[in-house]
Amino acid sequence: MIVDNAVYVAGRRTADPESLDETFEVLRARHGFAWIGLYRPTPEELDAVTREFDLPALAVEDALAGHQRAKMEKYGTATFFALRPARYLDAEERVEFGEVHLFLGDDFLISVRHAESPDLGQVRRRMEADPALLAKGPLAALYAVLDQVVDEYAPVVAGVENDIDEIEDQLFNGDQEVSRRIYELSREVMALQRAVHPLVDVLESLRDDLDRPAGPQHPAGPDEELRDDFRDVHDHVLRITDRVDSFRQLLQNALTTHATLVSQDQNNEIKKISSWAAILFTPTLVGTIYGMNFEYMPELHWVLGYPFAMGLMLALGFALYTVFKRKGWL
Amino acid sequence: MIVDNAVYVAGRRTADPESLDETFEVLRARHGFAWIGLYRPTPEELDAVTREFDLPALAVEDALAGHQRAKMEKYGTATFFALRPARYLDAEERVEFGEVHLFLGDDFLISVRHAESPDLGQVRRRMEADPALLAKGPLAALYAVLDQVVDEYAPVVAGVENDIDEIEDQLFNGDQEVSRRIYELSREVMALQRAVHPLVDVLESLRDDLDRPAGPQHPAGPDEELRDDFRDVHDHVLRITDRVDSFRQLLQNALTTHATLVSQDQNNEIKKISSWAAILFTPTLVGTIYGMNFEYMPELHWVLGYPFAMGLMLALGFALYTVFKRKGWL
Amino acid sequence: MIVDNAVYVAGRRTADPESLDETFEVLRARHGFAWIGLYRPTPEELDAVTREFDLPALAVEDALAGHQRAKMEKYGTATFFALRPARYLDAEERVEFGEVHLFLGDDFLISVRHAESPDLGQVRRRMEADPALLAKGPLAALYAVLDQVVDEYAPVVAGVENDIDEIEDQLFNGDQEVSRRIYELSREVMALQRAVHPLVDVLESLRDDLDRPAGPQHPAGPDEELRDDFRDVHDHVLRITDRVDSFRQLLQNALTTHATLVSQDQNNEIKKISSWAAILFTPTLVGTIYGMNFEYMPELHWVLGYPFAMGLMLALGFALYTVFKRKGWL
Amino acid sequence: MIVDNAVYVAGRRTADPESLDETFEVLRARHGFAWIGLYRPTPEELDAVTREFDLPALAVEDALAGHQRAKMEKYGTATFFALRPARYLDAEERVEFGEVHLFLGDDFLISVRHAESPDLGQVRRRMEADPALLAKGPLAALYAVLDQVVDEYAPVVAGVENDIDEIEDQLFNGDQEVSRRIYELSREVMALQRAVHPLVDVLESLRDDLDRPAGPQHPAGPDEELRDDFRDVHDHVLRITDRVDSFRQLLQNALTTHATLVSQDQNNEIKKISSWAAILFTPTLVGTIYGMNFEYMPELHWVLGYPFAMGLMLALGFALYTVFKRKGWL
Amino acid sequence: MIVDNAVYVAGRRTADPESLDETFEVLRARHGFAWIGLYRPTPEELDAVTREFDLPALAVEDALAGHQRAKMEKYGTATFFALRPARYLDAEERVEFGEVHLFLGDDFLISVRHAESPDLGQVRRRMEADPALLAKGPLAALYAVLDQVVDEYAPVVAGVENDIDEIEDQLFNGDQEVSRRIYELSREVMALQRAVHPLVDVLESLRDDLDRPAGPQHPAGPDEELRDDFRDVHDHVLRITDRVDSFRQLLQNALTTHATLVSQDQNNEIKKISSWAAILFTPTLVGTIYGMNFEYMPELHWVLGYPFAMGLMLALGFALYTVFKRKGWL
Hints:
Five copies of one chain form a homopentamer.
Chain A: E1 2-9, E2 12-15, H1 20-30, E3 33-39, H2 43-53, H3 57-65, E4 71-74, E5 79-83, E6 86-89, E7 94-97, E8 100-104, E9 108-113, H4 120-128, H5 131-134, H6 138-151, H7 153-172, H8 178-211, H9 224-289, H10 298-301, H11 305-327
Parallel strand pairs in A: 3-9
Antiparallel strand pairs in A: 1-2, 1-3, 4-5, 5-8, 6-7, 8-9
């Protein structure tokens, strides 16, 4: 599906072509650049832009197939980006990963989305409100998309951090489910690392390109503003990878701590159980003694022998209870 | 055994020589390149190609001996590749590793296979259907073989991933066999890493060669299409190493989690066992009390003394059962 | 809030302007450099300096937003520093992190503080007492601030080291709370690493700048004294990262050791409990024997049968006690 | 002891001098190169070659002292190699490390052996059978020695691999000695890593030397055959380090798995023991009940009361046995 | 305190000045170089040399303050070294760290010692006995000091190795104190790593300096002998770091192994305790049976009923004992 399809000249939307063919004509007539948004495109749609913009065949295949790792690949006529945006699903306390592919050329940016998020329409609206920036061409649009994707990692990181806080509470409150939750969260954190880490290299490579003197892809030479913008995204990515890496460490520590707490728990329970066993057992000893069949056992003939024995049982039990209570075993 | 043996000129199969000697003659007459497929070759067969194409002696020894690590070695007259293809055996839930050796020269590609897989015949048929690509010479044939080997890792990765999912289920369902399975799967994952990781360097080295200006091995200068093709294989290898590395981490976590779950299990069982011990023991206490030999024990003379004692035993047992049930120990 | 606001010429405070506008005028008139200290500035205050000194917009946004990772970012007109000073709160045995942002230009240093510490007023007073150093311009003031921030890490490191010593005592004294404390301290040590580690790169980058021949930011060429000063800070940072990294290792070891100690503890308790169980149980055996109803049991008819049985019980119990004591189980 | 001592000209043994002095004379007369094999040399013997060939004093000291780490050190007049060959002692299932030192010059190779293995005599005989290779001078002899040392690691690696297989069997068969064996084998694997790992750098450095254009140590310029030979050794070393590194990982995993298996074992034993305790205890409960002294207990007066009670005991015991058997506790 | 204070010309001690001022005069008169040994110097003493030799102020502060990490810092007029020598205290089985600071200039070497060891007086005597080496100037003296410090690590490494051997014995003999000892030894090993590791970089940096062509600090160009000497020290440092790194690994393994052994121990004890519980309990069952009050129990009326019951008890106990002994539980 073609979600949006416009040609921008000097940062302003100059045409809302009704079909891709019209877009290509307008673009050739007025120059400027085309920004085309596709959502789960049909092979035909992808084929049309591929032919018009001479997109690299292998990258187009990747975009159709999906399940790409986050990466940037430079081809002769275009640069291909695969991004793995993420969303935190509050209800399920789970991270969901999407997939966005971008083709960047001298006069076009084509986005291929496979999931609802991220909201690239909003990105476009924000850019259209800033014609000065948009006038810098497809690289500015690329920045806007990258910025959006990276910004959307922030709530994911916050959600995972919140999960870790909850896990810590569960950990020290003896919740048995916590080992499963730690295991599953580490799995998600690893997936998040796989999504975010490659962006560090992607953004460093973009920065190096922008620092290079004038060339085909940026004929006006390095643009300071754009370079700072990309650096800002780079900085956000670094902040996120920092956090995510520390999450992994924390979860590892939580796992080890949990093992120890479980053992400690067992120690405490063994003490408690043994205490109660002793408290229950002492009366039995008394009962066994007065169950002996000796002919000459004075207590047996006392009128108050039975209450005496029962009292002895209770007294011993209570004494043991007090002893264990004092030792902290109960 | 010589599986297939053909000379290609301008991407088309021009001769089906009946013997190696004929191949060598045809090759000298018509130029083009020879693509020879050997399967567990006799020393004589290997000797013939070694003499004709001046293959490096040490590499030929390696190819005869087998059990090579995945690698690429450049010699003066040829480049030697050792690949470790893999198959996932569904029945045994096991990864099986094969071995393929390749000799690449200016006008030949010789493959030496030691196992059934991979199906190099299919690779050849696919290439013969694309003469434009095959016309690029032995490097194109090399690409086709590498692509096949790397593509065949995908089902292996899927199989291992499925094993890990099963292991996770076993883990949280308390299956005792899981530690053995984790241990054995990590061993396979390590073998898979040893097979796949060296390919990253091999493909980077090939890419660097292809980026270099015109030279003896590619006299026409860098070929963009071929370079992109090799990069595509490189990308697949990276995707696979990413996955395999994360498998290792996951299995490590599973091992640690399992240790904790086993301890937690023990805690629960100790509670359960102690509860039943207490439930069994309380009646004994009652019995011991009424087994005492005091002269003056009113209950002993009651007509309903015995049923009363039995009722007391059951009541106490039931009371304890309820208490433990409520505390979640049973 | 504008905490302090002065213009320095040749290392001496030449003006105490009442408003930022006055500062800017004075600066233009007398040259020298402005050192402006802001504490949780209003957007208007930050706006004024941003316009006057042409501060980079993205960095100003970061400074307003806070929660930056420690870093240095060079922009065309200014260099932005984000620092994470730390304090050790003795009462709570906790590390508290602050945040300081700096903008360094050819003729200004602007500090933006978000927390009480560090005491930058003190830094300024110390520098005003050393006009020779201050005459070297904003870089000297930057050095003074960095030096203060790094020096303030020393008591934090000492505090954490003290915590680790306490943890070791708790560890070998069997304090149950120690696993929680280890876990929480590792979390703080990780936060400390995140605050301190980036400074290594920041200071190496500054050193490289200072080693470079004369240029716009230091027109007089490399200043040996300043370079040595920055190297001194660098050395302190390295000393701190060394210590902090080793803390992490120590805590990891403490966690593993604790797990073993808990198991060892359990072994000892099981031995102790079993010993007492045996001591309690042996008299029961004696009692059970003399509770048998055999017609011909000589002891039952002895006058001293009952004391004999009781003596036997005590003797057996005492014998077992001695045995277990000797084996070190009690 | 001087084990062998010969001068080679154009790859042929031309003299069997009776003393070192004669060797030196022959060498000066006929050129070629000397290959001298020493076994635990006396300081005098070492002194003679040191003076004649101007060996570096510090390296000679190292060779006398022994206990060197594997390394290569270039001095002005000679290059010093310390190698750590290894043997697998089948009887003791232990790896034994030897030590060989080599001095390589333009016209000599001196080997100093401190242990029986490796068999350098055999290396010499093999080389003397290949005069073409030996004619390439001392570097060819060096290659032969390195090749022998590296080849002798293969049975060691196989032996350790076999140990690991045995350990895995012990592991899953519950052999208690396995933790000691794992610990000791990891110690040996670490020693093996220390012996083999430095060879990677040594061989890379040799390869770089051989790739360099003509120079004093190889006046004829790079020799392709020799370079391929050294690369072959390099490849073997890489294969061995790969295996040895994976051994370490495997043993680490075995250690962790073992800890879990021990806990799991405990769980199973606790269940078994508790089951038997319950089976033994139930008859006691029955016995206690019929030991009560109630006046009105009908069963006590039954003629078959006693067999009934015994039957009840057996029946309950058997019922419990069946229940536990079904639950898999027994 | 000024321990020694001499001026050397052409490798010979030419003056024993009575005060620092005299030293400075002699040095100016006769050239050569000054070698001054300070032990816990007063600020005044340090001040005198600082002024005379123009020592870098920040390094002098470090030398006064102590607690420096091992490092080398080049200043304009001098190079500053901080070393952390170590001693193994046999009595306490503990490693003690000292601190030595060195200032190296074109015509001086000043050592500042803060602890008894290392014995720098002995270093000086050894150097004075080798005027040829000493004639090479302050660098030769620096070599001698470094050599001494590094040589003194050898007994420390041996001591720690011995501790590890003892720990291994304790480990497999079930000594409970071993976890504390492992923990504390790892702490020392980490401190040793911090002392030794930086020397690798220091010596590599010195080597690079010595390889450089003639310059101010070594006007005669690279000196081969000195370079080999420093390389020898470098090699020793590498040998030590290798050992120390492997100690850390070994202790880590020992910690993990210990945890498993403790669990295994528990398994064995639980089996032993349960066996004895069963042996004790069976007679109780017999006693309980014959304590039942059935009217018709033939055994009760046997004359030998009582001995029969006692015999039954013993027989059952002995039978169980034999069974458990055979299963290896006792």
